[in-house]
Write a structure and sequence with these properties.
Length: 307
């Protein structure tokens, strides 16, 4: 609750018998009870920690994990029948694209490079820059154990870069590192924290940020975990949106929200939808049941439900 770990007494029927009590000051995710029913294991950004249920005895759990980016070795020549470089409007015909390691070092007219160079014969094909998937939510793919499948499928269709615009942060880091290390085959993945909401949330991979101070806790966690994008969602109030916008500037990463307004006015740098919901009445999309649009909603109702 409010990005920190709390405990609450329950009766035999599971109903609360008292108020929630905060037991950590640091951000907390993925809690699990220990075997003694008195110790809680949790993630705090990049650390694994334990704490007693009374809030005492917090300690770090050493976890030695490391990975290395998989970088191909040697020289590869791609003989392209045609090349569209993504800059000009014309195709370049019969060219050689030379790759050393994971970098393109030259593009030149086709020539004989000898038997020592690995050659990919695309003489009958057109080569173009990789496509970018700009809107991905990896949560359900991860939970269903299907991300490895969809990542390979995306790559087979020419998508070489994907931008998550909200997902479970810890699992997203795992997926990003697995792709970079070559343990998963797929596009390069830029990751994002969960959807950052206001007082309420709809999706399970969202996080409620009720005050700018709570928003700052999540922004600091995103910085520690090297997030690539920050997204404000549809119920985030204006002060939260402003804090997210400033946090993205401080981190040097892009930011966005569902609709152009009021996001642009708060400093958020982009929009993830051309038409979508926005709980302040800016959206024009139909509800899920196609029962009403924000344009059709009576003004009095719009004012009453703009949360």
């Amino acid at each position: 609750m409010d990005s920190r770990l709390h405990v609450m007494p329950l009766g035999p029927d599971g109903a609360p018998t008292g108020p929630a009590r905060q037991v950590t000051d640091d951000p907390a995710d993925l809690p699990a009870w220990g075997g003694d029913s008195q110790t809680i294991l949790y993630k705090s950004a990049e650390r694994v920690r334990t704490v007693r249920a009374d809030g005492s005895g917090t300690r770090d759990v050493p976890v030695e994990l490391s990975w290395r980016q998989a970088v191909p070795e040697g020289r590869t020549l791609i003989h392209a029948g045609a090349l569209w470089d993504g800059v000009g409007t014309a195709l370049r015909r019969d060219v050689d694209i030379v790759v050393e390691g994971n970098r393109i070092v030259s593009v030149a007219p086709h020539a004989d490079h000898g038997s020592a160079t690995r050659v990919v014969d695309a003489g009958g094909l057109t080569v173009m820059p990789g496509l970018v998937e700009t809107h991905l939510h990896p949560l359900t793919l991860y939970q269903g154990g299907q991300f490895g499948q969809i990542a390979q499928l995306m790559l087979s269709y020419g998508i070489t870069t994907a931008q998550s615009v909200a997902g479970p942060l810890h699992q997203s880091v795992e997926m990003r590192e697995a792709l970079e290390a070559g343990n998963l085959i797929g596009p390069r993945l830029f990751i994002s924290p969960p959807l950052w909401e206001g007082n309420r949330l709809f999706y399970s991979f969202a996080r409620t940020l009720r005050t700018p101070q709570i928003a700052q806790i999540e922004i600091d966690k995103a910085k520690r975990m090297d997030a690539d994008f920050l997204k404000s969602y549809v119920r985030a109030p204006i002060p939260i949106m402003e804090r997210i916008a400033q946090g993205a500037l401080d981190l040097g990463v892009p930011s966005g929200t569902h609709m152009v307004q009021p996001g642009a006015a708060t400093g958020l740098a982009g929009t993830t939808h051309l038409s979508a919901t926005q709980r302040m009445g800016y959206g024009w999309s139909k509800s899920f049941a196609r029962a009403i649009t924000y344009r059709m909603r009576p003004m009095s109702t719009a004012r009453a439900t703009s949360t």
